[in-house]
Amino acid sequence: MQGFEYYNKVPVTYSLGNFLFPDHVKNHGAETGVLKMKFKEKNVKMSFNPYIIRNNQITPTQGQEKQNMLQYLQSTSNDVQIEQDGKIINMR
Q1: Which pTM does this prediction carry?
Q2: How far is CA 84 from the centre of its chain?
């Protein structure tokens, strides 16, 4: 997975992870997620729900595992704030 940014007020996402290849992913490669986008006129709001592939099933993360994934995404993102609930806020 890679991070998020806004370019000219337009949200940009990079590599949301593997979602359909459970037999071939391990460790960080098993980290994935679902990006939600809400559109209202010219405004776009984003949030990210982290998931992980375990035993060939995609399951939502919780607790510290979820926070670790969100912190990693924060470290790879530019000019955004990723909150604990997954909301992605444009900081420009």
Answers
A1: 0.84
A2: 12
Is residue 7 classed as helix, strand or coil in its secondary structure? strand
Model confidence band, residue 23 (pLDDT cutoffs 50, 70, 90): low
pLDDT of 18 above 80: no
Tokens standing for residue 21 = 């290849």
| Contact predicate 50/66, CB 8 Å | yes
55, 48, 39: which is closest to 80 by C-alpha?
A: 48
CA distance to 45, 48, 73, 80, per residue, from 22 (Å):
29, 20, 21, 30
Q: What is the secondary structure of 26-87 as a DSSP string? A: -GGGGEEEEEEEEEETTEEEEEEEEEEEETTEEEE--HHHHHHHHHHHHHT-SSEEE-TT-E
Give residue-wise pLDDT tens across range 58-67: 899 999 999 9
